[in-house]
Design goal:
It is elongated and about 45 Å long. It has a five-stranded mixed beta barrel with strand order 1-2-3-5-4. By secondary structure, it is mainly β. The protein is 0% helix and 49% strand. It has strands at residues 2-10, 24-30, 36-45, 54-59, 76-81, 84-87, 90-94. The protein has a single domain (2-12, 20-81), classed as EutN/Ccml (OB fold (Dihydrolipoamide Acetyltransferase, E2P), Beta Barrel).
């Protein structure tokens, strides 16, 4: 899993049937302080995340292992909303 911050939404009115009903969010990789630092990815939201939240997401075949994304053509899925990150004995992020 990867740490990311939700930085936006993606809306698509025309899409494959397997993607209908799914929420697309724009996620930027983040550091252990929850600061957005890296590249962007469009991820399916499986947990009800919103813009500004720090999340854990999976990419590749792991992204298709949730109840929401099973057997769907997705490459990234948000699987958790982060409450706290502790790194090297220090709390570096709190929701």
């Amino acid at each position: 899993m990867l740490i990311g911050r939700v930085v936006g939404t993606v809306v698509s009115t025309r899409k494959e049937d397997e993607l209908k009903g799914l929420k697309f969010l724009l996620v930027r990789n983040a550091d252990t302080e929850g600061k957005a630092t890296g590249s962007l990815v469009v991820a399916i939201d499986a947990v009800g995340a919103g813009v500004g939240e720090v999340v854990l997401y999976a990419s590749g075949s792991s992204a298709r292992q949730t109840r929401v994304t099973k057997d769907r053509p997705v490459d990234a899925t948000i699987m958790a909303i982060v409450d706290i990150i502790e790194h090297e004995g220090k709390q570096t992020y709190t929701k």
